[in-house]
């Protein structure tokens, strides 16, 4: 009876650190793009910031991973990175927004002596007004007029270039914003750039360190249930995202702010990160030594299997990066949009991952690693295509239910395949390299390409083209793997291990 009630504290600590780390990470990761938008960043500027972040993720984690394998200091570096993430990022809340040069002007559109619709002098001051509900938005060639108020009760037409010249005293008071006065790479952008680099440096090694450490612990315990540990990260991410979105809405209303206030992004990230730091001190990580890292590196960079693996990892990362960077940005313009709704979408996203992570080991054994990656990329591409047809924010909640197959299954297959392919003692090195390519290089390409497509052709075209790239990547991976298998004339690993030979 005592054995039945006993708890394996090793796995308990692994589950808890997954939960609290991903809950902490979700607070900023889910809302970073719209936080930057609230500070005045454009889609292109956001793309640059996200690309810098991903470039750091590409370069830095493999170095930390190699150092970890050489020194076998998984626990020390994991704990240090989580603590630094909790301690160093809170000041980001105080980054000032982009400032506009604002002023007030009053125009008498009905006084023919001061405003003649045919005179050359008036043409330079010609103003167009559009009515949305009870607000008039007016603009001329260089100035956008915000909160335009008709202070004399005169009824303006939706496209107001029609003026009465007799018996009219209509005056329009406009609070204006001189957009040309903005500096595209001014103080706000510079501070966000520094914040983004620090964020990437301290947070990017944590995921691969945690995954590699988990596989090392599982190997010692003779267990093969990575997905059942990782699913607690999905639960934490969903709970953290939803709670953060809710507190953003409640706090913004409580302080009477017209715009969203993101204080709780930073409070919750720091608090949950401190808890994860304490838990990481309790981990029992096995020690290992490797005589030299060079033979393993040579194998990593010359293996055809790893090359094909990298191909689909990068394409999948590009498709996912469009979602992470631009979905909520686009969603702010949909009917029913709110940070609580974004939190619900993130929760739906993560809850769909939980059962998939739980059964992922069984599915991968049946389908094989490669087909699991192929299927995941196809589903991610389908979801990205459907983003182009969203009409209401609640539809995001439904679409994110695909995430179990679109993200959880391929991520489980990716991590499991890394552990299988990695040379002895180099799991963290290869895990960091692959995740650096996924979260780094692929996301650099995705955010830059997405920013260009978003501004040049619109969000819907961006989503459709990204989906097409994903479908191409999935089938090209399938073809290359099949061709390599045929040319090598070696039975596939899937057949050897009793997996269905239909796959690869």
Task: Describe the protein's architecture and organization.
This protein is α+β, with helices and mostly antiparallel strands. About 65% of the residues lie in helices and about 5% in strands. The chain has 19 helices and 5 strands. A 5-stranded antiparallel sheet has the order 1-5-4-3-2, with no helix packed on it. Helix 4 (about 45-70) runs antiparallel to helix 17 (about 425-455), helix 5 (about 75-90) packs antiparallel against helix 8 (about 205-220) and helix 12 (about 305-330) crosses helix 17. The model is unreliable at about 1-5, about 100-180 and about 490-504 (pLDDT under 50).
In short:
This protein is α+β, with helices and mostly antiparallel strands. The protein contains 19 helices and five strands.
Keywords:
single chain, 504 residues, alpha+beta, five-stranded antiparallel beta sheet, 7% strand
Report how far apart the termini are: 46 Å
Q: Compute the gyration radius: what is it?
A: 27 Å
Q: What is the multimeric organization of the chains shown?
A: single chain
Number of strands: 5
Number of helices: 19
Secondary-structure-derived class? alpha+beta
- Residue ranges: pLDDT <50 for 5 or more in a row? 1-6, 101-182, 490-504
Q: What is the makeup of the main sheet?
A: 5 strands, antiparallel
Overall shape: globular
Order of helices and strands: HHHHHEHEEEEHHHHHHHHHHHHH
As a percent range, the share of helical residues equals: 55-70%
Major sheet: arrangement of strands: 1-5-4-3-2
